[in-house]
Amino acid sequence: MIEDVFEFLQEGVTPCHAAATAAAWLDAAGFTRLEEADYWNLEPGRGYYLVRGGSAVAAWRVPDHAIGGWRITASHSDSPGWKVKADTVENDGCRRLSVEGYGGMNMATWLDRPLTVAGRVLLRTADGVETRLVHLDRDLLVIPSLAIHMQRDVNRGHEYNPQIDMQPLWGPAEGRTLTDLLCEELGVAAADILDRDLQLVVRQTPARIGPDGEFFLAPRIDDLECAAATLLAFLDAAAETDSACAPVWAMLDNEEVGSSSRQGAQSSFLRDVLDRILEAVPHSAQAGPRALANSFLLSADNGHAVHPNFAAKSDPAAPVRLGGGVVLKYNASQKYTTNALSGGVFRAVCAKAGVPVQAFTNRADEPGGSTLGNLLSHSLPIPMADIGLPQLAMHAAVETAAVADVNAMIRAVAAFYRVHLRALGDGVYTLE
Prior knowledge:
By secondary structure, the chain is α/β, with parallel strands linked by helices. It folds into 2 domains: about 290 residues, Aminopeptidase (3-Layer(aba) Sandwich); about 120 residues, Roll (Aminopeptidase i, Domain 2), CATH 2.30.250. It contains 10 helices and 22 strands. The two termini are about 25 Å apart. The radius of gyration is 22 Å and the shape is globular.
């Protein structure tokens, strides 16, 4: 299924494009799109999905009987990069785009490589306002580095200033502007463009490397690899889940900048969806709390593999290898939600499916990042485990991962959706 994941990585050039790709896959699988402003009529055995903010998606299948629990995976659609602030600006005979950083990235990896622009444009129409996706699918820009002759000490370390070092070269001063190209691409007049959310896009396509293609390179591996793998597992297993369990797949936005948007993990999006599903099907007054008590969520966001050149940066007690299987992430400060209970349940599911699991912890003197799970737990008080896939060069313009781990994730998550998981009491589960 690696080619399907490559398709998702290639098509999901922005969070809005990733959401549109997920929607297309769900459409092809027979799921029905709903809108938040509409009245919902949900039928048992049918699949549905919802998009919020153009960049977050939640999909589910209504079980055949009263909802007795939720089986949820959550990933995110955004990656660190450069947001376009304004159209081209003339500077010393050339034009540059004005950009600012989004999320924590390795800036040096964006230098001297072909880039383009993609995102969404808000258009004025005869009926009001319309959102259109745009992707200028061509080699269009570059962020040129300064020649070593003018910075002789650059190889001893350089502190990049986004305003000075990282503004992309557009073209000659007298050339066409970004607005000109957007109008040509969309077939509209400049006066029709009301606003836009645009960003720089790395032009590299996913590529397998290694003597037998064991590894691959691609932009946006964090976190579209998890988003694609969990969606493939959801589509494969959603129709075979426990008859009283509702499988849910979610891809949220803005994780790289704190998840505090209306389509992020700190919003009410996922809880709103679960509550509305219950409201749209017959249920008892206690159905909501009972379903939450019998639920489980996997927060899927990638983890760090041991870097062969910098092995000392990893915890020697928890080495994570490319190709070694799904990563289960632990953190004493609960930046990851995994504990003995949720980790044990996930390990049991993976053992049943024959999927290898690796444990990740940070070095005790290295602070780790947070992810979706601990933010989702503010509104969803259910057991959660933080999982991911091992990768190198996280938050670089192009990242590296292993083909075998994609297959491991798909198998593990499909098994999670299929298993008959029952909470018999606090800390006691059956797995059938």
